[in-house]
User: Fold these one by one.
Assistant:
Number 1:
Amino acid sequence: MKDEIKISRPLLSKWAESLLHMNHHGTLIQRELKSGDIKRAAVLAERARKRAWKLFSEMLEYGAEKPKGYCEPQKNA
């Protein structure tokens, strides 16, 4: 595997926007937890989790190496 991979600026910008959204979700989760709205916090946490998983998958697709010790998720039988 080559150490250098060319990634377009639009794709990098898309990834940066995703990270910003995840950060925003984290801020909103903290706010909802402080106010006691656990259901809303859970919804926001799930949205952040899905966005993080999508970004992780895209980065692997474009050549990132899987982290040491990473195991593929188990498929439901």
Number 2:
Amino acid sequence: MQANPFRPAEEASVSTTLSTRCLGQTLAALARVGLADQAMLELIYAECLEKIKFGQPEDPLIALARLRGTDEEFMGPVIQRFSETLAAGMSPAPPLLPFAHRLIAPNSFYELFPTLVELGKQLLVPVVFAEDTDAIGVASINPFAAEFFSREIISTVHKRFSVRPFVTVVRTDYEGWSFLVRKHYKL
């Protein structure tokens, strides 16, 4: 039986960084919903892993769209379809919030949690609002990355302040997400 390269937390030879684990979960979801076959998953994994190593993150949905030959002008609708397909398999399914990019960046939250800023940058999931440490919202084109990041936020905030925040996970459109990533993470 062949080892599954998309479950890095279980493989001794693969990095177990949080971003790599998130990548593995997203790839497993892409396989479950039939968006990518094994060969395509291996290409996405290699490309994203290489970019993670060099601090130039790429979302697996973007990598999938590019591997399928999607031109930049058509990226938005293609990514939207991928995002909707992935979200449909989640419970609850993260809703689409097309105006998430208009919310003010939570600079005080980012100052309090520099490690979460770095993880959010690696996962390409911005925090779109933070009411102190009680209510926090994250947005992405990739609902699995957003959900993964929300769990890390809950864990980190709880360890530091003994409070479990309410974290909202939403999806956003490709154009809004691109704007958020540039604005929050200077990418």
